[in-house]
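Is this the right way to post C-alpha cells for a design question? Let me know if I should format differently. Anyway, here goes:
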C-alpha cells in the first residue's frame, strides 16, 4: 500500500470507516470523490486498493445514470448498492459501489491530483513488475519520457509487447508458421520468451 498516491490513502480510510460505522461515534460520509486529471492513475490505484483489501467492487459508469426520467438514476444506484450488499452477505467479501467518471454528470470541481515524480516511478514500477523490469530501469524509462501521464507508460508497455510479439513471429518463420506454432505451444502450455527487458532498453 506504500505505492499509493497519498490522496488515495483517503479511500482506504473511507472504506474502513464505513464498515466500522456502527462502532464509531462520528458521522461518516457515504460517498468519496476522487478527482484528478485524465491519465493520472485514478482507476489503476483504486484497483490496487480493492485487490489489497480483498474487495469485490460493483462498478458502474456515469453514462448509466443518464435518463430522461428523474427517478431512474437514483433507482439504479440503489439497485447497485443492493448488489454490493449481496456480495457481502452471500460471498463473505467486502464490497463497495464505484462510479467511474461521475464528474461527467456532476461537473468538474475540486483540486486535481498531481502525482510527483516519485509517485509516477512507484506506480509505473507496479505496472511493469510482472515483466521483470527493475525499479532502476523504471526510473530510466520515466527520465527518458518525462512529464507524461500514467496512461503514456501503459501505452508504452502495450507497444513494447506488440514489438516483442512481432519479433517472435519473425523469429519462428513469419505469419505462415504462426497458426501451427500457437496451437502446439497451447497444447504444451509453453509461452514465447518476449525479451521485454531488452526491448524496453531499446525504447
Amino acid at each position: 500500500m506504500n505505492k499509493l498516491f497519498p490522496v488515495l490513502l483517503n479511500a482506504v480510510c473511507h472504506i474502513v470507516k464505513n464498515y466500522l460505522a456502527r462502532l464509531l461515534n462520528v458521522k461518516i460520509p457515504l460517498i468519496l470523490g476522487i478527482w484528478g486529471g485524465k491519465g493520472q492513475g485514478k482507476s489503476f490505484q483504486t484497483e490496487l486498493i480493492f485487490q489489497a483489501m480483498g474487495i469485490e467492487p460493483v462498478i458502474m459508469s456515469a453514462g448509466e445514470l443518464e435518463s430522461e426520467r428523474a427517478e431512474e438514476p437514483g433507482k439504479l444506484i440503489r439497485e447497485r448498492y443492493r448488489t454490493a450488499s449481496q456480495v457481502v452477505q452471500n460471498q463473505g467479501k467486502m464490497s463497495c459501489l464505484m462510479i467511474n467518471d461521475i464528474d461527467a454528470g456532476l461537473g468538474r470541481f475540486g483540486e486535481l491530483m498531481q502525482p510527483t515524480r516519485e509517485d509516477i516511478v512507484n506506480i509505473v514500477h507496479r505496472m511493469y513488475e510482472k515483466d521483470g523490469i527493475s525499479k532502476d530501469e523504471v526510473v530510466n524509462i520515466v527520465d527518458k519520457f518525462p512529464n507524461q501521464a500514467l496512461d503514456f507508460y501503459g501505452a508504452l508497455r502495450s507497444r513494447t509487447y506488440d514489438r516483442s510479439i512481432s519479433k517472435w513471429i519473425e523469429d519462428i518463420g513469419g505469419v505462415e508458421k504462426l497458426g501451427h506454432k500457437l496451437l502446439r505451444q497451447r497444447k504444451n502450455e509453453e509461452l514465447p520468451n518476449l525479451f521485454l527487458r531488452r526491448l524496453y532498453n531499446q525504447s
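Format looks fine. Someone answered above. Worth noting: The two ends are 29 Å apart (CA to CA). The beta strands are 58-61, 97-100.
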